[in-house]
Amino acid sequence: MNINMNHSFKIKSDNELDCEVVYFTNANLIIDSGFKFKDFKIAYKTYGKLNSEKTNAILICHALTGDQFVADKNPISNKNGWWDRMVGPNKPIDTNKYFVICSNVLGGCIGSTGPKETNLETKKIFGTDFPSITISDMVKAQKLLIDALGIDNIFAVIGGSMGAMQVLQWSIDYPERIVNAIHIAGALKHSAQNIAFHEVGRQAIMNDELWNKGNYIEKNTIPQRGLSVARMIAHITYLSDDAMHRKFGRKLQSRDIISFGFDADFQIESYLRYQGQSFVKRFDANSYLYLTRAMDYFDVVEKFEQLVKYPTSPNNHINYLIISFSSDWLFPTRENKQIANILNYSSKKVSFTEIETDKGHDSFLLDEPELDKTISGFLESNFEKIKGN
Q: Which of 161, 171, 240, 287 is catalytic?
């Protein structure tokens, strides 16, 4: 990693987005593609208070379409934060006890430097001139944010799906900076099937005539049809067959008989159309292209195996918690278990649990009492160890 440690930064409040933004200048952040960000910004939210010893910081890494609004109302969608049921006072990730940080990833579209933002050097919107990014690049930017907040060590890094990829990357790139790692519904590499689903979504966006080769903002348009279809495709992968059958089955939508046409006859059709239409109001199409590509590039099998195999590995101190869901076919249990097996084989500190549920990949975002107990118990037991020292 090549970072000019002589960079400067300034933290400002963004009243429109209701969050903080750290502006890095002269950072000269060189990402994996070779592109150098001289200046960039990261938008973030914090919850709770940092204790005087600075030992209670938790970094939550969001998934593909998540953002920094983990626990309070999102000013764009006007809905509760995406993990509001998990993070807050007296909740599993208790903000009476922990100082929680969540940032919008590099390449995102909710305040951090990404395709929809203005290139601070050219003064033009990036569009598809934005460089290709990786999960490692996201973590490099997060590390600079943590530095800017004056935090040396993070008590826990937590994330599901794309967030789980970031958790693994943290344990590879900056193991000395983290104490605990909670990896939920992820894998050491993105599978061929997952890449295939992403490619179909990307093609839907890029074949929308309003995409305009990524320069739609200049034309004051949005490739709504393409982005909506991409979301519909992705949303199917987040559910399980059992969950869809239980929730929708073959129920008709607001009618007693079929229409013999192509309107939304079935409730599942109406649901997917709603998911697609609401998504375009809060997410940027180019960001979707870049972030799905970053997930596709993710493959840390070799790096992770090399990291953990030695008795003096730099991640020896990290307590890992690996969580999977029985009905998740996007990141199945076997892929999560592979991580635990590698850690176990090298005598590292790891706990693994598979939660029985029919809710699919999105289980980590839904009401799963066993998930709540597992995470809160893991955090509490390890926090007590720190207090005991």
A: 161
